[in-house]
Amino acid sequence: TLNIAVLISGRGSNLQSIIDNVESGYIPNACVSVVISDKRDAYGLVRAMNHGINAVFIDPAVYESKKHFENALLEVLEKFSTDVLLLAGFMRILGSNLIKAYNNRVMNIHPALLPSFKGLHAQKQALEYGVKISGCTVHFVDEGMDSGPIILQKSVPVLDSDTEDSLSERILAQEHIIFPEAVKLFAEGRLDVKGRRVHIL
Ligand code: GAR
């Protein structure tokens, strides 16, 4: 079985979509082994416990540097024999040791069509820019911010009546589809990374 670890910082609706698609068998031969949060009160930790999944809070405040925090994270990942690490609303940039250790095995979901609107509040950035189409992206994580090889993208229209909330909701519905789809492709060994391009076998 593929051991999936999920990193979160909050609500965890993308985590839920991964759990549901593992439980239904859509993502084959896989198990969510551990959910790790950098926020003590992240609701995603409750979701994990509701499904009998190990829920771990790693408090960044107790580590003297980013590197020490990263080492603590690595320890938990190793303890649960992690094969793939999913960033599902995790609001920090991972350090290079972790990225090297899990090269092409860390995936992130971002609420915009990368390379547009990297970083925080991507949906607000899209509205302010005035684009007519936005969407979401699943990509492998490299050492940059929202910059690794793109696995899947899905577009949604931006409507004149949209607020940050309404656009975020429309994008989120697509996130819940493409993130499990990308993990399924990974689980099936069908993602072939060639430089920046990810070919689907
Ligand atoms: C999602 O929209 C995700 O794409 C976004 O945070 C939200 C988390 O929701 N991630 C980022 O903005 C990463 N920079 P969730 O906790 O319900 O999955």
Automatic annotation (TrEMBL):
EC number: 2.1.2.2
Coiled-coil zones: none
One of the record's GO molecular function terms: phosphoribosylglycinamide formyltransferase activity
Membrane-spanning parts: none
Any Gene Ontology biological process: 'de novo' IMP biosynthetic process
GO cellular component, one term: cytoplasm
CDD domains registered for this protein in UniProt: FMT_core_GART
Reactions accelerated catalytically: N(1)-(5-phospho-beta-D-ribosyl)glycinamide + (6R)-10-formyltetrahydrofolate = N(2)-formyl-N(1)-(5-phospho-beta-D-ribosyl)glycinamide + (6S)-5,6,7,8-tetrahydrofolate + H(+)
UniProt keyword list: Purine biosynthesis, Transferase
NCBIfam families (UniProt xref): PurN (TIGR00639)
PANTHER family, sorted: PHOSPHORIBOSYLGLYCINAMIDE FORMYLTRANSFERASE
Family in the record: Belongs to the GART family.
Protein name: phosphoribosylglycinamide formyltransferase 1
Protein species of origin: Methanohalophilus mahii (strain ATCC 35705 / DSM 5219 / SLP)
